[in-house]
Request: fold
Amino acid sequence: MTNIFLGIITFAVVVLTVVIIRVLRELKTDLAAIKEITEKTEESLVPLLQELQMTVKSVKIVTDNVGAVTEDVRVFSGSVREIGENVRQVSQLVEDFGRVSVLSVSGLKAGITTALGVLLKNLVKTKNIQ
Reply:
C-alpha cells in the first residue's frame, strides 16, 4: 500500500512539475510580450512628450502675446475715450459759440435797424427844415 501511495505521490509531483514548467514558459512568453509593448510605448511616448513640450511653449508665447495685445487695446481704449471727451468739449464750445453768434447777429441786426431808422428820421427832418 505504501508503494501505491508512493506511486501516486510521485505521479502528482511529476504532474505538478510539468504544470509549473508550462506555467513558467507561458510567463516567460508573456513577460517578453509585455517588455516589447513597453518598449514600443516608450518609443512612441518620447516624441509625443517632446511635441507636448513644444506645444506648451507655443501656448505660453501666445498667452504672453495676448497679454501684450490686451494692454495695447486698453491703452487704445483710453485714447478713444479721451478723443470722445475732446470731441464733446469741442462740440459744446461750437454750440456755445453758435448761441453767442446768433445773439450777436440778432443784436447787430437790431442795432443796425435802429441806427438806420434814426438816420432816416434825421435825414427826413433835415430835408423838411431846408
